[in-house]
Each structure stands twice: as structure tokens, then as C-alpha cells.
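Standup notes
- DV: blocked on the single-chain target, sequence here:
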Amino acid sequence: MQMCPIREFEKRKKENIFSYFETIDEEFDYSVAVKEYQRASADQEESKPEDLRPSIILLKTVQYLFTVLLDESPECSDDLYDFLWNRTRAVRKDITQQRFV
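- DV (later): unblocked, structure below
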């Protein structure tokens, strides 16, 4: 399992919904895609177990976001801030849903 569930990756790729920070050579790339935060709503299906990332993947995701991504960014732009906020919120949601704490 990667930082983004394959089902979400395929849906976002098909709908062309991805961030610049999830691209390699301007192409949406699974190796750097990170699960996007989705607010729960009545018309949205509940998270499937295969979409919840295990703790080791959540740790890998946070390490990627704060070491690799921040280190590669020359300055902390609003876009980077928004991306980090959204993706860490998705991490917190996975932690809560799995009752890790």
C-alpha cells in the first residue's frame, strides 16, 4: 500500500484532480500521490477498510510530507501550506477511524 489508496488514485487521475506536489515530470504519479481529505457527508459512502492506511503507511506519509516535500520546496507557498494541511488532515482522520489513539 502506498500513501494514496489505489481506488482514490485512479478516480482522481480519471477526473484530473491532483496537486502539483503529486507529480513527477508533470504527470500525476502514484509513488508521490497522497490520500486527500474528504469530509464525511450523507451522500458519500463510508470509508472502506482497504482505503484506511495502516500505521506504518501513515508514518511514511508524514515523513514524506515533512522531510522530502518541505526540503524540496524552496519556500513555503500558500499552495504548499494548503496541500500539507489537507493531507495531514487525512492522516488524522485515518488515525481516528482506526482508533490508534
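- Follow-up: The first strand starts at residue 23 and ends at 24.
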